[in-house]
Amino acid sequence: MNGTVRTTGQASRVTAAHLLDEPSSPTHVSIGLGVCFQFTPSAHYSQVMTITASQPLIAASTVRGWTLAGRVTEEGPVRNFPLSPMPFRVGRRSEMELTLPRQTISGHHAELFERDGVLYIRDNNSTNGTFVNGQRLVGEWELQENDLVQFADAPFRVNGTLSASPSHTRCTDACDQAMAFVQFDRLISGNAIIPHYQPILDLSNNSTVAYEVLVRSRLIGLETPMFMFTAAAQLGLSTELSEVARRAALEESGLFPNPAHLFLNTHPSELNVEKLIESCADLRNFGTHQPLTIEIHEGAITEVAALEKLRNGLAALDVSLAFDDFGAGQARIAELAQVRPRYLKFDRCMISELHLADASRRHVVASLVSMAHDVGIITLAEGVETADEHAACVDAGFALGQGYLYGKPMPATHYLNPSPAL
After folding, report:
1. Last residue of a domain, one of 182, 216, 240
2. How many angstroms separate the CA atoms of 118 and 139, rounded?
3. How many independent structural domains does the chain possess?
4. What is the pLDDT of residues 378-395, one digit of tens each?
5. Which entry of 6, 138, 387, 400 is 20 to 30 Å from 284 by CA?
6. Could you list the residue range(s) of the whole structural domain that residue 198 is in?
Protein backbone atom coordinates (compact mmCIF):
# COMPACT_ATOMS: atom_id res chain seq x y z
CA MET A 1 0.00 0.00 0.00
CA ASN A 2 1.56 3.33 -0.89
CA GLY A 3 0.61 6.96 -0.99
CA THR A 4 1.61 10.55 -0.60
CA VAL A 5 -0.02 13.84 0.27
CA ARG A 6 1.92 16.92 -0.67
CA THR A 7 0.89 20.57 -0.70
CA THR A 8 1.56 22.61 -3.79
CA GLY A 9 -0.08 25.47 -5.62
CA GLN A 10 -1.58 22.87 -7.94
CA ALA A 11 -4.18 20.25 -7.15
CA SER A 12 -3.14 18.01 -4.25
CA ARG A 13 -3.14 14.25 -4.59
CA VAL A 14 -3.63 11.25 -2.33
CA THR A 15 -2.96 7.75 -3.65
CA ALA A 16 -3.98 4.54 -1.86
CA ALA A 17 -3.24 1.18 -3.47
CA HIS A 18 -4.05 -2.46 -2.74
CA LEU A 19 -2.38 -4.50 -5.47
CA LEU A 20 -3.23 -8.20 -5.44
CA ASP A 21 -3.25 -8.85 -9.16
CA GLU A 22 -2.62 -7.14 -12.46
CA PRO A 23 -5.12 -4.25 -12.74
CA SER A 24 -7.62 -3.84 -15.51
CA SER A 25 -8.76 -0.57 -17.07
CA PRO A 26 -9.30 2.34 -14.64
CA THR A 27 -12.62 3.94 -13.83
CA HIS A 28 -12.85 7.60 -12.82
CA VAL A 29 -15.40 8.38 -10.12
CA SER A 30 -16.36 11.85 -8.91
CA ILE A 31 -17.43 12.22 -5.29
CA GLY A 32 -18.04 15.98 -5.35
CA LEU A 33 -16.22 18.61 -3.35
CA GLY A 34 -13.81 18.84 -6.24
CA VAL A 35 -12.59 15.29 -5.63
CA CYS A 36 -12.15 12.61 -8.27
CA PHE A 37 -11.20 8.97 -7.74
CA GLN A 38 -9.41 6.81 -10.29
CA PHE A 39 -10.40 3.23 -9.49
CA THR A 40 -8.54 0.38 -11.21
CA PRO A 41 -10.02 -3.01 -10.24
CA SER A 42 -8.42 -6.42 -10.75
CA ALA A 43 -9.82 -9.91 -10.99
CA HIS A 44 -9.76 -10.15 -7.18
CA TYR A 45 -10.53 -7.53 -4.55
CA SER A 46 -7.83 -4.99 -5.31
CA GLN A 47 -7.81 -1.41 -6.34
CA VAL A 48 -5.79 1.65 -7.12
CA MET A 49 -7.48 4.84 -6.01
CA THR A 50 -6.27 8.32 -6.80
CA ILE A 51 -7.93 11.18 -4.98
CA THR A 52 -7.38 14.51 -6.66
CA ALA A 53 -8.61 17.63 -4.87
CA SER A 54 -9.30 20.56 -7.13
CA GLN A 55 -8.22 22.98 -4.42
CA PRO A 56 -4.77 22.87 -2.78
CA LEU A 57 -4.45 21.53 0.72
CA ILE A 58 -3.44 24.02 3.40
CA ALA A 59 0.20 25.03 3.20
CA ALA A 60 2.41 24.13 6.17
CA SER A 61 3.51 27.75 6.57
CA THR A 62 -0.04 28.75 7.61
CA VAL A 63 -0.19 26.24 10.48
CA ARG A 64 0.08 27.67 14.00
CA GLY A 65 -0.31 24.37 15.85
CA TRP A 66 -0.88 20.71 15.08
CA THR A 67 -3.46 18.16 16.26
CA LEU A 68 -4.24 14.50 15.60
CA ALA A 69 -7.91 13.58 15.15
CA GLY A 70 -9.00 10.02 15.83
CA ARG A 71 -10.18 7.47 18.39
CA VAL A 72 -8.14 6.25 21.36
CA THR A 73 -10.22 3.04 21.44
CA GLU A 74 -12.34 1.53 18.71
CA GLU A 75 -15.50 2.27 20.72
CA GLY A 76 -14.56 5.82 21.71
CA PRO A 77 -15.50 9.15 20.12
CA VAL A 78 -13.34 11.01 17.62
CA ARG A 79 -11.18 13.50 19.52
CA ASN A 80 -8.54 16.12 18.68
CA PHE A 81 -5.18 15.78 20.46
CA PRO A 82 -2.84 18.83 20.41
CA LEU A 83 0.72 17.79 19.54
CA SER A 84 2.29 19.22 22.65
CA PRO A 85 4.83 18.89 24.14
CA MET A 86 7.23 17.92 21.40
CA PRO A 87 8.42 15.31 20.71
CA PHE A 88 4.90 13.90 20.88
CA ARG A 89 5.16 10.19 21.68
CA VAL A 90 2.46 7.65 20.77
CA GLY A 91 2.21 4.16 22.22
CA ARG A 92 0.51 1.76 24.58
CA ARG A 93 2.47 2.83 27.69
CA SER A 94 0.80 5.28 30.10
CA GLU A 95 3.67 7.80 30.03
CA MET A 96 3.16 8.49 26.32
CA GLU A 97 1.70 11.85 25.27
CA LEU A 98 -0.96 9.83 23.43
CA THR A 99 -1.72 6.44 24.99
CA LEU A 100 -3.52 3.95 22.74
CA PRO A 101 -4.60 0.95 24.87
CA ARG A 102 -4.69 -1.55 22.02
CA GLN A 103 -2.86 -4.86 21.72
CA THR A 104 -1.73 -3.94 18.21
CA ILE A 105 0.14 -0.85 19.48
CA SER A 106 3.72 -1.11 20.75
CA GLY A 107 4.74 0.41 24.09
CA HIS A 108 6.51 3.34 22.40
CA HIS A 109 5.11 3.02 18.92
CA ALA A 110 6.05 6.28 17.15
CA GLU A 111 6.67 9.96 17.73
CA LEU A 112 6.01 13.26 16.03
CA PHE A 113 8.39 16.22 16.22
CA GLU A 114 9.13 19.57 14.61
CA ARG A 115 12.27 20.70 12.86
CA ASP A 116 12.59 24.21 11.39
CA GLY A 117 8.84 24.67 11.63
CA VAL A 118 8.11 21.43 9.73
CA LEU A 119 6.22 18.49 11.29
CA TYR A 120 7.77 15.02 11.00
CA ILE A 121 6.89 11.51 12.17
CA ARG A 122 9.09 8.48 12.75
CA ASP A 123 8.29 4.92 13.74
CA ASN A 124 10.04 3.58 16.83
CA ASN A 125 10.63 0.05 15.49
CA SER A 126 7.04 -0.89 16.31
CA THR A 127 5.81 -4.42 15.73
CA ASN A 128 2.89 -3.54 13.45
CA GLY A 129 4.25 -0.39 11.83
CA THR A 130 3.22 3.20 11.28
CA PHE A 131 1.67 4.27 7.96
CA VAL A 132 1.16 7.63 6.26
CA ASN A 133 -1.51 7.62 3.55
CA GLY A 134 -1.10 3.84 3.36
CA GLN A 135 2.71 3.75 3.03
CA ARG A 136 4.68 2.10 5.84
CA LEU A 137 7.26 4.41 7.34
CA VAL A 138 10.96 3.81 6.97
CA GLY A 139 12.92 6.52 8.74
CA GLU A 140 11.41 10.00 9.07
CA TRP A 141 8.45 11.37 7.13
CA GLU A 142 7.40 14.96 6.62
CA LEU A 143 3.73 15.45 7.46
CA GLN A 144 1.27 17.84 5.85
CA GLU A 145 -2.17 19.07 6.77
CA ASN A 146 -4.81 16.32 6.24
CA ASP A 147 -2.30 13.45 6.01
CA LEU A 148 -3.75 10.11 7.13
CA VAL A 149 -1.59 8.47 9.81
CA GLN A 150 -2.17 4.91 11.04
CA PHE A 151 -0.44 3.56 14.15
CA ALA A 152 -0.89 -0.15 13.38
CA ASP A 153 -4.71 -0.28 12.96
CA ALA A 154 -5.47 3.06 14.68
CA PRO A 155 -6.13 5.79 12.08
CA PHE A 156 -5.71 9.51 12.76
CA ARG A 157 -5.87 12.64 10.63
CA VAL A 158 -3.30 15.44 10.87
CA ASN A 159 -4.93 18.83 11.46
CA GLY A 160 -3.52 22.30 11.88
CA THR A 161 -4.79 25.20 13.98
CA LEU A 162 -5.37 27.82 11.30
CA SER A 163 -6.42 31.33 10.65
CA ALA A 164 -9.66 31.68 8.72
CA SER A 165 -9.36 29.88 5.41
CA PRO A 166 -12.13 29.53 2.82
CA SER A 167 -10.84 26.12 1.76
CA HIS A 168 -10.54 24.60 5.25
CA THR A 169 -13.97 22.93 5.30
CA ARG A 170 -13.55 21.64 1.78
CA CYS A 171 -10.22 20.04 2.59
CA THR A 172 -11.52 18.49 5.82
CA ASP A 173 -14.53 16.96 4.03
CA ALA A 174 -12.32 15.59 1.27
CA CYS A 175 -9.95 14.09 3.81
CA ASP A 176 -12.82 12.39 5.69
CA GLN A 177 -13.75 10.77 2.37
CA ALA A 178 -10.13 9.75 1.85
CA MET A 179 -9.92 8.15 5.29
CA ALA A 180 -13.07 6.16 4.58
CA PHE A 181 -11.59 4.82 1.35
CA VAL A 182 -8.24 3.99 2.94
CA GLN A 183 -10.07 1.89 5.56
CA PHE A 184 -12.61 0.28 3.23
CA ASP A 185 -10.58 -2.92 2.93
CA ARG A 186 -11.02 -3.47 6.69
CA LEU A 187 -14.76 -3.04 6.29
CA ILE A 188 -15.14 -5.40 3.33
CA SER A 189 -13.10 -8.07 5.12
CA GLY A 190 -15.99 -8.29 7.57
CA ASN A 191 -14.07 -7.84 10.82
CA ALA A 192 -15.03 -4.18 11.22
CA ILE A 193 -18.79 -4.58 10.69
CA ILE A 194 -20.92 -4.52 13.85
CA PRO A 195 -24.36 -6.07 13.27
CA HIS A 196 -27.22 -4.51 15.23
CA TYR A 197 -30.49 -6.36 15.74
CA GLN A 198 -33.88 -4.64 16.01
CA PRO A 199 -36.71 -6.73 17.47
CA ILE A 200 -39.84 -7.59 15.49
CA LEU A 201 -42.89 -8.28 17.66
CA ASP A 202 -45.99 -10.40 17.27
CA LEU A 203 -48.70 -7.80 17.92
CA SER A 204 -51.14 -10.38 19.21
CA ASN A 205 -49.07 -11.04 22.35
CA ASN A 206 -46.14 -8.54 22.14
CA SER A 207 -43.54 -11.31 22.04
CA THR A 208 -40.31 -10.92 20.04
CA VAL A 209 -40.36 -13.30 17.10
CA ALA A 210 -37.54 -12.04 14.86
CA TYR A 211 -34.89 -9.35 14.35
CA GLU A 212 -34.06 -7.12 11.43
CA VAL A 213 -30.31 -6.71 11.04
CA LEU A 214 -28.77 -3.28 10.51
CA VAL A 215 -25.02 -2.69 10.38
CA ARG A 216 -22.65 -0.20 11.98
CA SER A 217 -18.89 0.28 12.00
CA ARG A 218 -16.30 1.98 14.22
CA LEU A 219 -14.15 3.00 11.28
CA ILE A 220 -13.82 6.76 10.79
CA GLY A 221 -15.96 7.87 7.87
CA LEU A 222 -17.74 4.49 7.70
CA GLU A 223 -19.79 4.51 10.90
CA THR A 224 -23.29 4.23 9.40
CA PRO A 225 -24.87 2.23 6.55
CA MET A 226 -25.20 5.44 4.52
CA PHE A 227 -21.47 6.18 4.79
CA MET A 228 -20.53 2.54 4.15
CA PHE A 229 -22.62 2.16 1.03
CA THR A 230 -21.69 5.59 -0.30
CA ALA A 231 -18.04 4.51 -0.27
CA ALA A 232 -18.95 1.07 -1.65
CA ALA A 233 -20.90 2.65 -4.51
CA GLN A 234 -17.90 4.77 -5.51
CA LEU A 235 -15.79 1.61 -5.68
CA GLY A 236 -18.44 -0.54 -7.37
CA LEU A 237 -18.52 -2.87 -4.35
CA SER A 238 -22.08 -2.38 -3.07
CA THR A 239 -23.08 -5.98 -3.72
CA GLU A 240 -19.93 -7.32 -2.07
CA LEU A 241 -20.50 -5.15 1.02
CA SER A 242 -24.12 -6.27 1.24
CA GLU A 243 -23.05 -9.93 1.13
CA VAL A 244 -20.37 -9.40 3.78
CA ALA A 245 -22.89 -7.63 6.04
CA ARG A 246 -25.35 -10.53 5.82
CA ARG A 247 -22.64 -13.07 6.63
CA ALA A 248 -21.43 -11.00 9.58
CA ALA A 249 -25.00 -10.77 10.88
CA LEU A 250 -25.45 -14.53 10.71
CA GLU A 251 -22.12 -15.22 12.43
CA GLU A 252 -22.73 -12.71 15.22
CA SER A 253 -26.23 -14.04 15.86
CA GLY A 254 -24.58 -17.14 17.29
CA LEU A 255 -24.44 -15.17 20.55
CA PHE A 256 -28.23 -15.48 20.90
CA PRO A 257 -29.34 -18.21 23.34
CA ASN A 258 -31.54 -19.73 20.61
CA PRO A 259 -31.23 -19.45 16.81
CA ALA A 260 -32.81 -16.10 16.01
CA HIS A 261 -35.05 -15.49 13.03
CA LEU A 262 -33.14 -12.85 11.03
CA PHE A 263 -34.53 -10.40 8.49
CA LEU A 264 -31.53 -9.63 6.24
CA ASN A 265 -31.42 -6.67 3.90
CA THR A 266 -30.32 -6.55 0.28
CA HIS A 267 -28.92 -3.64 -1.71
CA PRO A 268 -30.65 -2.28 -4.84
CA SER A 269 -27.53 -3.26 -6.81
CA GLU A 270 -28.34 -6.94 -6.22
CA LEU A 271 -30.62 -7.25 -9.23
CA ASN A 272 -29.09 -10.49 -10.49
CA VAL A 273 -31.52 -13.08 -9.16
CA GLU A 274 -29.20 -16.04 -9.73
CA LYS A 275 -26.34 -14.36 -7.87
CA LEU A 276 -28.61 -13.35 -4.98
CA ILE A 277 -29.90 -16.91 -4.65
CA GLU A 278 -26.31 -18.17 -4.71
CA SER A 279 -25.40 -15.73 -1.94
CA CYS A 280 -28.35 -16.95 0.13
CA ALA A 281 -27.30 -20.55 -0.44
CA ASP A 282 -23.95 -19.72 1.17
CA LEU A 283 -25.81 -18.28 4.15
CA ARG A 284 -27.98 -21.36 4.43
CA ASN A 285 -24.91 -23.60 4.40
CA PHE A 286 -23.52 -21.62 7.32
CA GLY A 287 -26.74 -21.34 9.34
CA THR A 288 -28.26 -24.71 8.54
CA HIS A 289 -31.35 -24.56 10.76
CA GLN A 290 -31.68 -20.84 11.43
CA PRO A 291 -34.87 -19.08 10.25
CA LEU A 292 -33.91 -16.53 7.60
CA THR A 293 -35.85 -13.93 5.62
CA ILE A 294 -34.41 -11.86 2.78
CA GLU A 295 -35.80 -8.35 2.37
CA ILE A 296 -35.96 -6.63 -1.00
CA HIS A 297 -37.45 -3.26 -1.81
CA GLU A 298 -40.82 -3.88 -3.42
CA GLY A 299 -39.73 -1.86 -6.45
CA ALA A 300 -36.16 -3.16 -6.78
CA ILE A 301 -36.97 -6.05 -9.13
CA THR A 302 -39.68 -5.05 -11.58
CA GLU A 303 -40.28 -8.27 -13.54
CA VAL A 304 -42.87 -10.58 -12.02
CA ALA A 305 -41.12 -13.61 -13.50
CA ALA A 306 -37.86 -12.60 -11.82
CA LEU A 307 -39.64 -12.11 -8.49
CA GLU A 308 -41.25 -15.54 -8.77
CA LYS A 309 -37.88 -17.07 -9.60
CA LEU A 310 -36.37 -15.41 -6.55
CA ARG A 311 -39.19 -16.53 -4.27
CA ASN A 312 -38.97 -20.12 -5.53
CA GLY A 313 -35.18 -20.16 -5.29
CA LEU A 314 -35.30 -18.91 -1.72
CA ALA A 315 -38.06 -21.34 -0.81
CA ALA A 316 -35.86 -24.22 -1.99
CA LEU A 317 -33.29 -23.01 0.56
CA ASP A 318 -35.95 -22.66 3.28
CA VAL A 319 -35.45 -18.88 3.20
CA SER A 320 -38.45 -16.55 3.24
CA LEU A 321 -38.98 -13.46 1.08
CA ALA A 322 -40.13 -10.07 2.38
CA PHE A 323 -41.12 -6.98 0.40
CA ASP A 324 -39.73 -3.95 2.20
CA ASP A 325 -40.91 -0.31 2.25
CA PHE A 326 -44.36 -1.13 0.88
CA GLY A 327 -46.21 2.11 0.20
CA ALA A 328 -43.10 4.31 0.04
CA GLY A 329 -43.17 4.35 -3.74
CA GLN A 330 -45.44 2.80 -6.31
CA ALA A 331 -47.02 -0.06 -4.41
CA ARG A 332 -47.59 -2.86 -6.91
CA ILE A 333 -50.64 -4.38 -5.30
CA ALA A 334 -51.68 -6.51 -8.25
CA GLU A 335 -48.37 -8.43 -8.16
CA LEU A 336 -48.67 -9.44 -4.51
CA ALA A 337 -51.15 -12.22 -5.20
CA GLN A 338 -48.93 -13.62 -7.96
CA VAL A 339 -45.55 -13.37 -6.24
CA ARG A 340 -46.81 -13.89 -2.68
CA PRO A 341 -43.83 -12.94 -0.52
CA ARG A 342 -43.99 -14.43 2.95
CA TYR A 343 -43.89 -10.96 4.55
CA LEU A 344 -45.00 -7.48 3.52
CA LYS A 345 -43.38 -4.62 5.45
CA PHE A 346 -45.44 -1.42 5.39
CA ASP A 347 -43.26 1.68 5.23
CA ARG A 348 -43.11 4.16 8.08
CA CYS A 349 -44.91 6.74 5.92
CA MET A 350 -48.07 4.63 6.20
CA ILE A 351 -47.71 4.09 9.95
CA SER A 352 -46.68 7.53 11.19
CA GLU A 353 -49.52 9.12 13.21
CA LEU A 354 -51.95 6.54 11.88
CA HIS A 355 -54.04 7.07 15.03
CA LEU A 356 -54.56 10.71 13.98
CA ALA A 357 -55.46 9.90 10.37
CA ASP A 358 -58.97 10.40 9.06
CA ALA A 359 -61.28 7.45 8.63
CA SER A 360 -60.60 7.08 4.89
CA ARG A 361 -56.83 6.72 5.32
CA ARG A 362 -57.19 4.23 8.15
CA HIS A 363 -59.69 2.28 6.04
CA VAL A 364 -57.22 2.14 3.13
CA VAL A 365 -54.43 0.82 5.37
CA ALA A 366 -56.74 -1.76 6.96
CA SER A 367 -57.95 -2.86 3.51
CA LEU A 368 -54.39 -3.36 2.27
CA VAL A 369 -53.59 -5.39 5.37
CA SER A 370 -56.69 -7.50 4.85
CA MET A 371 -55.91 -8.07 1.16
CA ALA A 372 -52.43 -9.28 2.04
CA HIS A 373 -53.74 -11.65 4.68
CA ASP A 374 -56.30 -13.03 2.23
CA VAL A 375 -53.49 -14.32 -0.02
CA GLY A 376 -51.42 -15.67 2.87
CA ILE A 377 -48.96 -12.79 3.31
CA ILE A 378 -47.92 -11.78 6.83
CA THR A 379 -48.05 -8.01 7.33
CA LEU A 380 -45.53 -5.98 9.34
CA ALA A 381 -45.81 -2.33 10.43
CA GLU A 382 -42.44 -0.55 10.33
CA GLY A 383 -41.41 2.48 12.35
CA VAL A 384 -43.87 2.18 15.24
CA GLU A 385 -42.73 4.81 17.74
CA THR A 386 -45.64 5.50 20.09
CA ALA A 387 -48.24 3.55 22.01
CA ASP A 388 -50.97 5.28 19.99
CA GLU A 389 -49.41 4.13 16.71
CA HIS A 390 -49.14 0.62 18.15
CA ALA A 391 -52.84 0.63 19.01
CA ALA A 392 -53.75 1.89 15.52
CA CYS A 393 -51.68 -0.88 13.92
CA VAL A 394 -53.41 -3.50 16.03
CA ASP A 395 -56.78 -2.05 15.00
CA ALA A 396 -55.72 -2.17 11.33
CA GLY A 397 -54.97 -5.88 11.67
CA PHE A 398 -51.16 -5.92 11.38
CA ALA A 399 -49.65 -9.21 12.47
CA LEU A 400 -46.17 -7.90 13.29
CA GLY A 401 -44.62 -4.61 14.38
CA GLN A 402 -41.17 -3.07 14.41
CA GLY A 403 -39.90 0.29 15.64
CA TYR A 404 -38.30 2.25 18.46
CA LEU A 405 -41.33 1.65 20.67
CA TYR A 406 -40.35 -2.03 20.84
CA GLY A 407 -36.58 -1.58 20.78
CA LYS A 408 -33.72 0.16 19.00
CA PRO A 409 -31.14 -1.76 16.96
CA MET A 410 -28.60 -3.18 19.41
CA PRO A 411 -25.56 -5.51 19.23
CA ALA A 412 -26.20 -9.21 19.82
CA THR A 413 -24.67 -9.02 23.30
CA HIS A 414 -27.61 -6.84 24.37
CA TYR A 415 -30.07 -9.71 24.03
CA LEU A 416 -29.75 -12.13 26.93
CA ASN A 417 -33.10 -13.94 26.79
CA PRO A 418 -34.10 -16.53 24.20
CA SER A 419 -36.59 -15.45 21.54
CA PRO A 420 -38.88 -17.86 19.67
CA ALA A 421 -38.80 -17.93 15.88
CA LEU A 422 -41.86 -17.16 13.78
Report:
1. 182
2. 16
3. 2
4. 999 999 999 999 999 999
5. 400
6. 187-414
